[in-house]
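Attaching the record inline, Q. Sequence:
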Amino acid sequence: MVDPMKENIGYLLRRASTVAMVELAKRLKALDLRPTEATVLLSIDANPNATPSELGRLLAIASANMAPLIARLEVRKLIEREPMDGRSHALSLTPDGLEIIKQIQRIVTEHETDLLDNIPVSARKAILTGLRAIWKDD
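Structure, as predicted:
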């Protein structure tokens, strides 16, 4: 079979992303976490006392999706909310959340190593530079 899209960057990015995320989801399943939940936990760890709206902006998660995500993590007692002002709540990791962060970091590190093993060492820097250029983190 001929893949007519194999030279299209957007198509290749989507295919690579799908492969990477499916594998990461399999690994995180052992912790009963989805990749987005793990990312939120890692982001709270890196940004203590961030608000849900700040995390949503950072991770490009709509507020309508952020609320149930935060609620799931709160029900699991991985995060807690602390009032900041009349409307906002700061998020922090609970002791259980801090413990699971170590496991998430191990899984992500192993996953990243396995992904990079598929890319020739000489091409890694160029690929990362190219991906960052497309993303344009503003």
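DSSP finds six helices and two strands in the chain. The CA atoms of residues 68 and 117 lie 35 Å apart.

More tomorrow.
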